[in-house]
Every structure is written in structure tokens, then in C-alpha cells.
Please model this.
Amino acid sequence: MQSQPIKRVVAGALAAAAVITVVSVGTPAGAITLPAPQNPPTNSADALAQYRAAAQEAEKLNEDKLKAQDDYNAKQADLAKANGDLAAANQRLQAAQAEAAKFQVVVDQFADASFVSGAQMSRMSALLTGTSAQDFLDRSSALAVLAEDKNRAMQSYLDAVNAAAAAAAQATDARNRAQAATDQSAQLLNDLNARAAALQAQLDQLRQLSSRLTAADKAAQSDTGGAAPGLPAPTSAAQTAVNVALGKRGSAYVWGATGPTTFDCSGLTQYAYGKAGISLPRTSSAQSTFGKAVPRSELQVGDLVFFGSPVHHVGIYIGDGKMVHAPDTGDVVKISPLQNDYSGARRVAY
Model:
């Protein structure tokens, strides 16, 4: 019979494992000395200025919505991974429990066979009960084999118990991560819906303001900014991105659009650099952490330039203090001076 301390330890480990259940979140070449930055007009009596101010606010809200969407998608991926880990851990747990149960039968048999009529099986008992020296050797050899089998069975049993305990711990961790991801996903979804509602309200305001725009105002919005400086980029990838973006001048700004015919600000930069073989994150805030930071005094053609704090707008620097960008709703992809709320630059092709 197996000793009670061993059985209690094993039974406790297996019981703890069994409670886990599945849950289903120097200035370099090409650097340009910049002129004083400019902004669009801000006279509140100017209908176009009011429209542009409202459109810029809508762009910020759109950026917030895109970021909230990215956060939600990332948390959904976390949830899927946690549930996958949980299912795998429970499969390992069930297999380990079955293995432990199998070897427990063997261990119990050895334990029961260790005592026969009150006499422990040992080489001494073999000597005392043997009828000859050869009989003793034969019995000793058999006992050695039995002891080896017993030790092997016991080790296999303990390995299975330890594997069950490890799988139980992994399942507990995965279950906790899945629950946390579920809760956080719900919060992020609420945030996403709130930001989408705020953006829609701003778009409604923009539609009202658009009725006040004159033909001259609308022509100003359609202006593509004149000729590009024509300065070369330092790398072929950067040059490709610049050329692609410049080739999209006149394309309409549309929230959430990533090309090939309409764009928002980060959609244009992502599209242009995608054609150069460089994959950028979706939002301007995420792009503002991509690549390496560049001081304003060292800007080169092809660098991403960012605006706002937190970042809400991005363009591609083309030299001479100018950028190509998708400004905001009602506007088109164009060349513009860098704006007053410049907040940094990143080099993604080097």
C-alpha cells in the first residue's frame, strides 16, 4: 500500500490541476535650412479658415478613432492568443493527468508488493529465504530488476505529476490573460464607439460650414501647391516614396482612406512608403515612433514630418521647408509649407 504522505501530496497536486477550466485580450547631404513655418489663415471671419479649423479638429478626432481601432484590434489579438494558450495548456494538463494516473497504478502495485506477510523484499530476505547460493543470486538479480523498474515507474509518475502542475499553472496564467483581455477589449470598444460618435458630430458641423464656402474657397482647397522643389532624396526608397506621394497631388482627402485614389494623412505616407518596400504603421501617432528621430536642422527629403502634441498629422518632407501631404477633409493631396505645430521628424529610409 502506498504511504499516505505521498498519496496526499500527489492527490493535492492533481486536484489543484483539475480545477482549471477553459475561458472563451554634422549636417548631412540634402539637409535644408528652413524658412519660418506657416499655417493656413486663422481669421475667424473667414469661412474657409473656419472650415479648415473644423476640418483639422476632425482630423484629430479621426486620428484618435484610428488609434482606438488599432488598440482594440491589438487587444483582440491578445485575447485570441490567450485563448489559444489556454486550450493548449488544458490539453497538456489532461495528457499529464492521464499519464500520472497510469503510473500511479504501477507505483501502487510496487508499494503493495514491498510488504509480503510483514517481510520487506530485500537482498537480506532473499538470503534468509533462499535454499542455495545460486538461489540467492537469482533472487537478488530479480530484486535488482524490480527495484530498477520501481524507480523508473516512480520517476515517470513524479514527472507526470510535475507536468500536470506546470500545465495547471500555464492554464491559470492563460485564463487570467484571457479574462483581462476580454475586459480591456470591452473598454476599448466603448472608447472606439465614443470617438467614432465624436468624429461623426464634427463631420456634421463640417457639412454645415461647407455651405458657406465660395467658389474661390473651394478652388483654394483644390490647389495642389505649385511645383515641387525638385531636390533629390538621399536614398532610392525615400525618392520612390516622394515620387509616389507627389504623383497623388489632387487626390481627395477621405478619412480612413489609404489609396490608391483617396487618402488621409497617414494613409498617404503609408501608401507612398509601401510602394518603396517599407511598411509603415497605420496612424500618424504610430508612425511618429517608427524609424529614427531626426532633428529639424537635419531634415532630408523623404523624412516623415509630424504635427501636433499628441501627434495628429504627418507629411513627407520634400525640401525647401515644404512637404507633400493630405491636409484634411474638403482638401486634396498637395504641397504646403511646414505648419506651426511641427512636433518632430522620423527617417524611415536610410
